[in-house]
Design a protein that fits this description.
The chain is mostly helical and about 110 residues long. About 60% of the residues lie in helices and about 5% in strands.
Length: about 110
């Protein structure tokens, strides 16, 4: 099993445990591949839910650039919703899981 497959398994378990949702492994795999080598970098592979600057980057680089959404307050509301569901006590929010859940939240699976 490749390192990426191991990470995808870990992400799927996180989605199941934290969000109580059965993950769409095919979509999760596509989201993970889309993140490229950043999934192997400890810092880049995580999202800090308490860092407004980082959340703004998620909005700009993922929701607007990748998913093609129009900037509006509902984007940050969606990010906050996903962060809240992930749990504020959980400091290790995997970027792939956050992006997957945002993709699902905004019903943008067709982008992949």
């Amino acid at each position: 099993m490749s390192k990426r497959d191991e990470l995808i398994e870990k992400y799927a378990a996180d989605i199941k445990d934290k969000f109580d949702v059965k993950p769409d492994v095919d979509l999760l795999t596509k989201v993970t591949i889309g993140l490229g080598p950043s999934i192997y970098n400890l810092d880049a592979s995580k999202v800090s839910g308490g860092d407004e600057k980082e959340l703004e980057t998620v909005k700009k680089n993922y929701l607007i650039k990748k998913l093609g959404m129009i900037d509006s307050p509902k984007l940050m509301d969606g990010i906050k919703t996903v962060m809240d569901k992930y749990g504020s006590a959980n400091r290790n929010k995997h970027r792939a899981v956050v992006y997957y859940m945002l993709c699902k939240h905004f019903k943008k699976e067709s982008v992949y």
